[in-house]
Amino acid sequence: MKTKMRHIVLLMILGASSFSWAQQEPHFTQYFDNTLYTNPAYAGSKGVMNAMLLHREQWVGINGRPRSTTFSIQTPLKYESLGLGVTAVNDVIGPLTQTMLNLDLSYSLRFKGKGKLAFGVKGGANLINLGTTSLTTVQEGDPLFLQNVRNKINPNVGAGIYYHLPRFFVGVSAPKLLEKSYDKLDPESLERRHYYGTIGGVLKLTNLWKLRPTAQVKVTNNAPFSADFSIAGIYNDKFYIGGMYRLDAAAGAFIQYQITDQFKAGFATDFGTQKLRKANDGTFEIMLSYDFLFKKPGIKSPRYF
């Protein structure tokens, strides 16, 4: 019965008899620390070189569950209006494995009052492996499941805009503008274009406590509207504790700790609010972030986003 349930869940994810792949980009509970993944204009905005690792295990207990790992490194260049970033992503769900590598470049305009408006472009490729022949199908001999895809490379480009102050940010982006085919067999099996919008800020409550609300929306053709909301209490600029809600999908919590001025670690968990929650043991994330300060003058810690 358990094996049958796993097959049913997997086929629901894959779209039963065909690959629609509408909602393709992975969700992250700690999306506020993973902005470069969705918006290239974020590159260099921290003012220092930063490296970030985020790993997500979704729907633990289900065979073929989504697993996503993101690694990014970014830095302002010597001409500080320019920012450079590199993002690597490994995303696995069922028979589909995607390995994405992107280069991000941003240019910032400075305004009075410490505001900066950045424009960014992203370019890279997605290495796709799709092992459909290992699946148990509903329709025997379905041609869409009789051929594996090995090491298919899909180049792509993206763009974004990001405005930020020390305690406020807002951005819009489309990290994949080209809708490339996954397998050339099904005209609907495309890397769908995703549009993101993000906003957030930091409010001072007392000398020791601050509040950081953030939100992210995602719009994708042929997929439900997606919206994430989070709020975190920040104690003494070191300890972060908060909760998140994903519209009609999940709710969760996270904790983060600024171990040193340069190193921060975080842990998050969320549980689905739909019926699928009864078939899994939840979702978990680990985040590590490190700033390479290099004794740069004028760089203040902490940076809240």
Major sheet size, sense and barrel closure: 14 strands, antiparallel, barrel
User: Largest beta sheet: what is the strand line-up?
Assistant: 1-2-3-4-5-6-7-8-10-11-12-13-14-15
Topology as H/E string?
A: HHEEEEEEEEEEEEEEE
Which term fits the overall shape? globular
Walk me through what this model shows.
The chain is mainly β and 305 residues long.
List its salient traits.
single chain, mainly beta, 2 helices, 15 strands, globular
Topology:
Blueprint: H1 2-14, H2 35-38, E1 49-57, E2 67-76, E3 82-93, E4 96-110, E5 116-130, E6 149-165, E7 168-174, E8 194-201, E9 203-204, E10 209-220, E11 226-235, E12 239-246, E13 250-258, E14 263-272, E15 283-292
Antiparallel strand pairs: 1-2, 1-15, 2-3, 3-4, 4-5, 5-6, 6-7, 7-8, 8-10, 9-10, 10-11, 11-12, 12-13, 13-14, 14-15
Structure at a glance:
By secondary structure, the protein is mainly beta. The protein has two helices and 15 strands.
